[in-house]
Each structure stands twice: as C-alpha cells, then as structure tokens.
Amino acid sequence: MEKANKGRFVVFEGIDGSGKTTQVELLCKRLASTGFPIYTTCEPTDGPVGRLIRRMLSGTLPADQRTIASLFAADRTEHLMDPETGIRQMVDTGTIVVCDRYYFSSYAYHSQYMDMEWVIQANRLNADILKPDITLFIDVDPQICLKRLQTTRKHLEIYEKIDIMKQVRANYLAAFKRLAHQEHVVVIDGNNSVDNIAKAVWEQVCLVI
C-alpha cells in the first residue's frame, strides 16, 4: 500500500445474478489472508432507510421510482458517514472496504425511469464524499443471470425481469462511458469460470492496493 494510514474502497457492480456477491467473498478471503484489514458491506444497507428500500424492491411496499432513487441516495450517505461503521472513516483509517453495489447501481437501475443526469446529481454528494478506488463490473449475459435467479429464489424482485435486466446492463455501460474521465471502472468477463473471474479481479485489485 502506498500509504500505511490510507485504506482503499473497492466496489463490485453487476446485474442481479451476475455472481458479484460470490466474487466479493472470494476477494475478501484473499485480502484477509494477506493481512490487510478488511470490511465487507453492501447496498442497500441494513439501516432504517435500507430496510425500507428492501420492502419497496420486494414489491410489498409500492413506491414511485423517484422515491426509491432518492432513498438509495440517502441510505448511501448514511452508509458513508455513520460514526461507527461509515465507509469514509474506515478508508481514512486504513481499512480496505469492499462494497457490493454503490452509486453506479443507482445510475443503471433508476435511469430506466428518469434521466440519468438526475440520478447522478442526486448522488453528487456521495461522489464528493468518496469515489471508489476501483469499480469492478462483472458482466454476464442477462439471460444467464435470469436463469440463475429462477433456480435460486422463490420470489423475484421488481427489477428481476429479462427486459429490465437487459436495459440495466445497457445503462451500466452508458454510465461507465459517460463518467470515464471521473471514475476507475474495469469490466470483468463474468461468463468465465468462478476461479478465472476471481483471478481477473485479483489482478485488477492488486493495481490499486
């Protein structure tokens, strides 16, 4: 690490069923084995706003998409700034934080329903607080992702439909292109074996820690 007192912020992105959660676990095990202080987290969080969002995503609490987008941004700010488990503080004090989803998820999912620039601006405060050192996008064919979800879940969430998943993938790629001059994003071929994906992830993460 370049600075002993400075951690890193690593984010995984991907459409539902892409296998990013598995890759988060594998990366954290490998980082921990090297002695790095590690903290793993995800969005939406388990806090009050995050729990509200989960009800909306499951369909049990109907809400306007602008409301959901705004709540995600608020949950993200709390995620960053919580006095005990805030990502910003952890990174500043030397921890490598690995997060399953961050603001690119909002750009990809919510821009189906509103202009992407609106979503980017809604998260401007969060981007100002902390940008990832690297965002790893696990890119998998949406048809494959949907089949995985159908075999592992009893109930699909509101965004887990093939037309939506295809659009979300396209939105991710559009957001990466739009913000290429501001963000460090690496697209990983998620159609490979789990081990090969993990190897590609490790190679990229080693460049920033």
TrEMBL record:
Class of the enzyme per the UniProt entry, highest EC level: transferase
GO molecular function, one term: dTMP kinase activity
EC number: 2.7.4.9
InterPro entries (UniProt xref): P-loop_NTPase, Thymidylate_kin-like_dom, Thymidylate_kinase
Domain of life according to the entry: Bacteria
GO terms classed as biological process: dTDP biosynthetic process; dTTP biosynthetic process; dUDP biosynthetic process
Keywords, alphabetical: ATP-binding, Kinase, Nucleotide biosynthesis, Nucleotide-binding, Transferase
KW Nucleotide-binding (keyword) present: yes
Catalytic activity: dTMP + ATP = dTDP + ADP
Pfam families: Thymidylate_kin
Domain Thymidylate kinase-like, first and last residues per copy: 12-199
SUPFAM superfamilies: P-loop containing nucleoside triphosphate hydrolases (SSF52540)
Binding site residues for ATP: 14-21
Any one GO cellular component localisation term in the record: cytoplasm
Membership in a protein family: Belongs to the thymidylate kinase family.
Primary role: Phosphorylation of dTMP to form dTDP in both de novo and salvage pathways of dTTP synthesis.
Name the record gives this protein: Thymidylate kinase
Gene source species: Desulfobacter postgatei 2ac9
Native organism taxonomy: Bacteria, Pseudomonadati, Thermodesulfobacteriota, Desulfobacteria, Desulfobacterales
